[in-house]
Amino acid sequence: MTLRDRLSQLSLRLPTGLYILDSGLSKRGADEVTAKSLHGLAAGSYPPLTRVEPAAFAKALSAGEIALGAALLAPFVPARVAGAGLTAFGAGLIVLYIGTPRLRRPGSPFPSPDGIALAEDGWPVGTGLALLSGDRRAAAGTDR
Fold first, then answer.
1. C-alpha to C-alpha distance for 119 and 96, rounded to whole angstroms
2. Which SS3 state, helix, strand or coil, does residue 104 take?
3. What's the rounded Cα separation, in Å, for the pair 28 and 61?
4. Tens digits of pLDDT across the chain (144 residues)
5. Residue 111, SS3?
6. Helix (H, G, I), strand (E, B) or coil at 74
7. What is the DSSP string of 33-62?
8. Among 126, 131, 73, which Cα is nearest to 139's?
């Protein structure tokens, strides 16, 4: 892998990893109100989550975000692995946005005021796909 490829990966992995790690750490020990809010939003788009207690859901979400953030920051984790995790995480956020009608303007895919923050969370998919495609190119030996 060339220096250019390494810098490109670093520019994707460092800010994304720090952001997601911080998000996960901020959910550790979430209070009851926060846990119920996170759980309620997720259960609306993922009905099987209704069988999970809100506190357990918040704890699992926190652990998942911490693990993903750490994987993005760890240089020994291949870009393909980190990119796959990030793409899956981002896809889950998009499904959450699409599956929650109050987050979109009526009859539109565009966000309501309540949905702006989540609508902007499509970036992990693009970043994850960039990590996936960059790693394949480097693995194939085509540095250009």
1. 9
2. strand
3. 9
4. 777 877 888 889 999 999 999 999 999 999 999 999 999 999 999 999 999 999 999 999 999 999 999 999 999 999 999 999 999 999 999 998 888 888 899 988 899 998 888 888 888 999 999 999 874 444 444 444
5. strand
6. coil
7. HHHHHHHHHHHHH-GGGGGS-HHHHHHHHH
8. 131
